[in-house]
């Protein structure tokens, strides 16, 4: 079975011009030619094209791709291992970037007022301002949002870093409880949930038990919050929600 240059371009999502270029530089020379001199690509050629496109997606220059693919000492398993390592590293970077964006979205909802330099130091190269429209649509009409904006308007970079440090320490406590097998309705977990509620009240807005349970449900119903929280430990979002509900029942029953 062989394929025309047009068919291969369609399979791979590249242009015919790109395939011509790869042929011209010797990176992907079709195995066959038709009697009329047209390029014909074999299954092996398609496998090589897949490798080329993978390395190109990772940012490798074409000359380096050629060296990688034409190394006589390399074997297919070595290429697969290398691709897996590169892809895993890229996924980890993208996950960190996504977490930073989500953190910036949450922070913006709390009324951060920092200089561009301070925002960069706290959040990296993600601008929380770009999520203002979503934040306004979601929380803009609530008393909690207005109270948080008023309370945090004067917060400095150091204030936000302190709040983040408190959050990180409480997260470590929750994770330790999970790893120790403590159920979410244990005294220790409920006490940690109470500290979580008090931290929100202290730093952002008055968070009663009904409000706290609403937040807990949002942690598992909004996949962005779930994904962000579960980076600490798989299942953490659900565990936190359950501890919040148990703590609220303890104090309101």
TrEMBL record:
SUPFAM superfamilies: Antibiotic binding domain of TipA-like multidrug resistance regulators, Putative DNA-binding domain. InterPro entries: DNA-bd_dom_put_sf (IPR009061), MerR-type_HTH_dom (IPR000551), MerR_fam (IPR047057), TipA-like_antibiotic-bd (IPR036244), TipAS_dom (IPR012925). Residues 77-104 form a coiled coil. It comes from Streptomyces virens. Keywords: Activator, Coiled coil, DNA-binding, Transcription, Transcription regulation. PROSITE patterns: HTH_MERR_1 (PS00552), HTH_MERR_2 (PS50937). Residues 1-71 form the HTH merR-type domain. PANTHER family: HTH-TYPE TRANSCRIPTIONAL ACTIVATOR MTA, REDOX-CYCLING DRUG-SENSING TRANSCRIPTIONAL ACTIVATOR SOXR. This is MerR family transcriptional regulator. CDD domains: HTH_TipAL-Mta.
């Amino acid at each position: 079975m062989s394929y025309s240059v047009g068919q291969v371009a369609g399979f791979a999502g590249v242009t015919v011009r790109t395939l011509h270029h790869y042929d011209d530089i010797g990176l992907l020379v079709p195995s066959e030619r038709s009697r009329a001199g047209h390029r014909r690509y074999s299954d092996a050629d398609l496998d090589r094209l897949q490798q080329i496109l993978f390395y190109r997606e990772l940012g490798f220059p074409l000359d380096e791709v050629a060296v990688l693919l034409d190394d006589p000492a390399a074997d297919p398993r070595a290429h697969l291992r290398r691709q897996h390592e590169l892809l895993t590293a890229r996924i980890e970077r993208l996950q960190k970037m996504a977490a930073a964006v989500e953190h910036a979205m949450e922070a913006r909802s709390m009324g951060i007022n920092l200089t561009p330099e301070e925002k960069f130091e706290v959040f990296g190269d993600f601008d929380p301002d770009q999520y203002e429209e979503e934040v306004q649509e979601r929380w803009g009409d609530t008393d909690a949002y207005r109270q948080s904006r008023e309370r945090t308007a004067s917060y400095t970079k150091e204030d936000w870093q302190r709040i983040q440090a408190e959050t990180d320490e409480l997260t470590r406590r929750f994770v330790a409880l999970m790893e120790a097998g403590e159920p979410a309705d244990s005294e220790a977990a409920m006490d940690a949930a109470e500290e979580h509620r008090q931290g929100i009240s202290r730093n952002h807005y008055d968070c009663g038990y009904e409000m706290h349970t609403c937040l807990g449900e949002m942690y598992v119903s909004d996949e962005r919050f779930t994904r962000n929280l579960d980076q600490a430990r798989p299942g953490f979002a659900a565990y936190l929600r359950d501890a919040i509900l148990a703590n609220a029942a303890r104090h309101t029953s």
